[in-house]
């Protein structure tokens, strides 16, 4: 009788603990949801007021058969055209300075032609709605692909932390293009993974990759994922479409093809030293060029020879490196959320980590996320905070890279 009472008491204690844990989980989710809602609201509000990175002006100039790269180097000339002058007036009326920075290839600016059909103020609203839709799409596609085996509670926390973080809020507020590009990259991953094999799948994947290259500084390194998946046709076709449109743009502006390639790079080169944590800021121009070449070659080799079934492990590695290989401001770092699979997917973690390493790397990853998403904002991204966060980020990235090389290329784990 006493034993039965003891078992009953134990069951009640366990039930209460489970109930308490459930309450704690719900409380955490509610707090994070509230923070995320405030963050998204502020980002949307900023987007309606500014969206200065939309590049409506550059795309509009190209649509009008004006050279956006020439106008970027001579910003005063852009105001001579009424349609563009109205765009800049939206900023000057608020005491802000805005100039054209056409750092995108012409084939990419063409993707914004539909947005230029709207006047500048309406284009802001349209772009905000699209970016919110892209966010929802990214969340859905990631759950169906790289995070399909991560627990629901962990995934919900990751997404809410991302939305509450400064990078996502700023991404939305300045009208950047990373949400647009990353959505189509994730759509390519989803189609390649779930669609039936055949010509239709090849075409759809290639089209998504073609659009995803709008933010080529991020998605070009990520596209190495498709080398691991042996999708060579899709990669080749996506690049070929840009080549065709570049030739078409040369005819459109009556310029030579070489100019259409070098001009946007010349505009972009002025931004190299303005990044957040990237190698260009740390190394300077000459050393950076050498380091970038070596790293890209190394990541390409890893992508080709990565062991089967470790695509998500590779994708996380590509995300970490893509954010520092080229110029990126910290608003692009919201994609770090989608590098979480190796640390919270048990099946993936077992392939590269020992039991002790699992916990260690998971906690280290959480530290990186908290530092990038919140700590930088607390200190207004001053030099000291960027150095501190940079040390945490690079140390983690290098340690994870070493584990990937050891266990996914040369090891037997």
Number of strands: 0
User: What composes the largest sheet?
Assistant: none
Tell me what portion of residues adopts beta-strand conformation. under 5%
What's the helix count?
A: 23
- Summarize the amount of helix as a percent range: over 70%
**Which overall shape is indicated by the principal axes computed on the Cα atoms?**
globular
Low-confidence stretches: none
Structure class? mainly alpha
Q: Give the terminus-to-terminus CA distance.
A: 51 Å
Rg over C-alpha atoms, rounded to the nearest angstrom: 23 Å
Mean pLDDT: 89
Give the topology string: H per helix, E per strand: HHHHHHHHHHHHHHHHHHHHHHH
Report on this model:
The protein has 413 residues and is mainly α. Helices cover 76% and strands 0% of the residues. The longest helix has 48 residues. The model has no long low-confidence stretch (mean pLDDT 89).
In short:
The chain has 413 residues and is an all-alpha fold. It contains 23 helices and no strands.
List the helices and strands and how they pair.
Elements: H1 2-49, H2 56-63, H3 68-73, H4 75-78, H5 82-92, H6 106-109, H7 113-116, H8 120-144, H9 152-164, H10 166-173, H11 178-194, H12 199-212, H13 216-222, H14 225-228, H15 232-253, H16 257-269, H17 279-283, H18 285-305, H19 311-325, H20 341-344, H21 346-352, H22 355-378, H23 383-410
Helix pairs in contact: 1-8, 1-9, 1-10, 2-5, 8-11, 11-12, 11-13, 12-15, 13-19, 15-16, 19-23, 22-23
Question: Could you name the key traits of this structure?
Answer:
413 residues, mainly alpha, 23 helices, 76% helix, 0% strand
């Amino acid at each position: 009788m006493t034993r039965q009472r003891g078992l009953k008491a134990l069951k009640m204690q366990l039930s209460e603990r489970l109930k308490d844990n459930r309450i704690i989980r719900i409380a955490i989710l509610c707090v994070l949801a509230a923070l995320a809602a405030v963050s998204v609201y502020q980002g949307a509000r900023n987007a309606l007021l500014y969206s200065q990175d939309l590049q409506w002006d550059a795309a509009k100039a190209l649509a009008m058969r004006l050279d956006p790269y020439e106008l970027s180097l001579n910003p005063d000339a852009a105001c001579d055209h009424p349609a563009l002058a109205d765009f800049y007036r939206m900023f000057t009326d608020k005491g802000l300075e805005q100039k054209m920075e056409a750092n995108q290839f012409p084939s990419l600016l063409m993707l914004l032609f539909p947005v230029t059909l709207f006047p500048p103020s309406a284009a802001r609203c349209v772009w905000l709605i699209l970016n919110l839709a892209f966010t929802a799409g990214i969340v859905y596609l990631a759950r169906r692909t790289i995070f399909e085996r991560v627990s629901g509670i962990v995934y919900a926390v990751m997404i809410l932390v991302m939305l509450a973080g400064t990078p996502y809020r700023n991404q939305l507020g300045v009208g950047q293009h990373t949400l647009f590009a990353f959505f189509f990259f994730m759509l390519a991953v989803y189609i390649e993974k779930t669609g039936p094999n055949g010509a239709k799948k090849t075409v759809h994947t290639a089209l998504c990759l073609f659009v995803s290259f709008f933010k080529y500084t991020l998605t070009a390194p990520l596209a190495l994922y498709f080398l691991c998946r042996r999708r060579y046709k899709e990669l080749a076709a996506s690049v070929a479409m840009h080549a065709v449109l570049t030739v078409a743009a040369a005819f459109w502006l009556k310029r030579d093809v070489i100019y259409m390639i070098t001009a946007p790079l010349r505009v972009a080169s002025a931004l190299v030293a303005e990044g957040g944590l990237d190698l260009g800021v740390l190394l300077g121009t000459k050393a950076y060029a050498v380091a970038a070449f070596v790293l890209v070659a190394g990541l390409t080799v890893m992508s080709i020879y990565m062991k089967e079934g470790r695509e998500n492990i590779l994708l996380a590695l590509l995300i970490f490196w893509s954010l520092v290989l080229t110029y990126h401001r910290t608003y692009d770092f919201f994609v770090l959320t989608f590098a979480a699979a190796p640390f919270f997917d048990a099946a993936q973690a077992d392939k590269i980590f020992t039991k002790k390493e699992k916990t260690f790397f998971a906690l280290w990853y959480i530290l990186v996320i908290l530092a990038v998403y919140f700590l930088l904002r607390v200190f207004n991204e001053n030099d000291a905070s960027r150095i501190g966060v940079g040390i945490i980020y690079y140390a983690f990235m290098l340690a994870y890279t070493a584990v990937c090389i050891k266990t996914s290329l040369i090891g037997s784990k």
